[in-house]
Write a structure and sequence with these properties.
38% of the residues lie in helices and 21% in strands. The protein is α+β, with helices and mostly antiparallel strands. The strands form four sheets. The chain has a five-stranded mixed beta sheet with strand order 1-6-9-7-8. The chain has a four-stranded antiparallel beta sheet with strand order 2-5-10-11, sandwiched between helices. Helix 5 packs antiparallel against helix 6. The structure holds adenosine-5'-diphosphate, ligand DP6 and cobalt (II) ion (CO). The site of ligand DP6 has 16 residues, from helix 2 and helix 4. This is Diphosphomevalonate decarboxylase. Its EC number is 4.1.1.33. It comes from Tulasnella calospora MUT 4182. Keywords: ATP-binding, Lipid biosynthesis, Lipid metabolism, Lyase, Nucleotide-binding, Steroid biosynthesis, Steroid metabolism, Sterol biosynthesis, Sterol metabolism.
Length: 350
């Protein structure tokens, strides 16, 4: 069964777990799921009596499914739900068969563009569709959370909040839609791939180190996140780009400050990332100084790649600025086409 999930771009960050096994976060967070036309994970799953074990191929290379690992936990949970379907209805017994899952990301994997969010959301949706599970997106969100925390938000399109929950069993820690994508169609996201290298510190190990060593994270959890979470939801509902942009940039900055406050420190941005920040800061300064509004907001995940949010009317100016200051060999004959293009997926299940 095929499933496609779009990329998640962050407005308010998840960085820290209070339970590493169940993947329960130290704070609530909010992301924007981008449409699937350009950047996406495409996942196909199949079960067959001839398959000898569960297997996963990611971008054409087989990945190990460790027993008891996150992937195995997701598959196990989906199987359990399928068994319930088989018990109740006259459905074929496919829960005992092994699964082959094949996934392809048409954007850099493990480079701070939330591939684990898009990837695990697509995987859970694909197997749930194969199993014909009568599950709601929130129920699937609970499962994908156990694959990668950020994936619990990517089951939904548009503006999505992961409410951290309070229970120790995690049953109240899942994502909910704040607003659908068509609520704010003028809002666009421009992805600037600064580097497609795999990051040096994975999100999983980086955030654990932060939880263990950063005093700034404790301040952020208690005194910063709750208010910002309420404010950004309000800004989204009111389509208030000024407030959305300010909170998004502040939160990106604080996340990277928290990474730096980790021992040993983690550097996710590089010099080009910082230059893009300077460009957006200057663009906004000039606009506000001339009596105008904030034109764009930058945000950086756990990696050097920029996501720039902007109302559609400002995109042309921003793209022109980016290609002027960051020219690339032969890439920008048609910058608008170039920015709209993702790579094509190669084949399906091997
Ligand atoms: P990112 O910033 O890209 O989310 P992470 O370090 O959080 O980086 O996660 C990267 C890992 O997520 C990969 O090494 C892989 O294990 C998993 N992953 C990425 N894409 C997929 C996918 N399409 N299907 C299944 N797992 C995926
Ligand atoms: C920086 O969800 O990748 O993207 O739960 O350990 O798999 P695990 O981590 P992951 O962390 C994502 C962190 C982030 C911010 C965010 O998605 O909110
Ligand atoms: Co991730």
């Amino acid at each position: 069964m095929d499933d496609i999930t779009g990329l998640a771009a962050l407005a308010r960050r998840y960085w820290g777990k209070r339970d590493t096994k169940l993947i329960l976060p130290t704070n609530s967070s909010l992301s924007v799921t981008l449409d699937q036309d350009h950047l996406r994970s495409t996942t196909t799953s199949r079960c067959d009596p001839s398959f000898e074990k569960d297997r996963l191929w990611l971008n054409g290379k087989e990945e190990e499914i460790k027993p008891g690992g996150r992937l195995a936990v997701c598959i196990e949970e989906l199987r359990r739900l399928r068994k319930e379907v088989e018990k109740k209805a006259d459905e074929p017994k496919i829960s005992d068969l092994h699964l082959h899952i094949c996934s392809y990301n048409n954007f850099p994997t493990a480079a701070g563009l939330a591939s684990s969010a898009s990837g695990f959301a697509a995987l859970v949706s694909s197997v749930a569709a194969l199993y014909k599970l009568p599950a709601t997106p929130s129920q699937l969100s609970l499962i994908s959370r156990q694959g990668s925390g950020s994936a619990c938000r990517s089951l939904f399109g548009g503006f999505v909040a992961w409410e951290m929950g309070e229970k120790s069993d995690g049953t109240d820690s899942f994502a909910v839609e704040v607003a659908p994508q068509d609520h704010w169609p003028e809002m666009h996201a421009l992805i600037c791939v600064v580097s497609d290298d795999k990051k040096g510190t994975s999100s999983t190990s980086g955030m654990q180190r932060t939880v263990e060593t950063s005093a700034l994270l404790q301040h952020r959890i208690k005194h910063v996140v709750p208010q910002r979470m309420a404010d950004i939801k309000k800004a989204i509902l009111a389509k208030d780009f000024d407030t959305f942009a300010k909170i998004t940039m502040q939160d990106s900055n604080q996340f990277h400050a928290v990474a730096l406050d980790t021992d040993p420190p983690i550097f996710y941005m590089n010099d080009v990332s910082r230059s893009i920040i300077a460009l957006i800061v200057e663009l906004n300064r000039a606009s506000v100084a001339a009596g105008g509004k904030i034109k764009a907001a930058y945000t950086y995940d756990a990696g050097p790649n920029a996501v720039i949010y902007a109302p559609e009317g400002n995109l042309k100016e921003i793209i022109n600025l980016v290609v002027t200051y960051f020219p690339q060999a032969d890439a920008f004959k048609d910058p608008f086409k170039m920015f709209a293009a993702g790579q094509e997926e190669p084949g399906k299940l091997p």
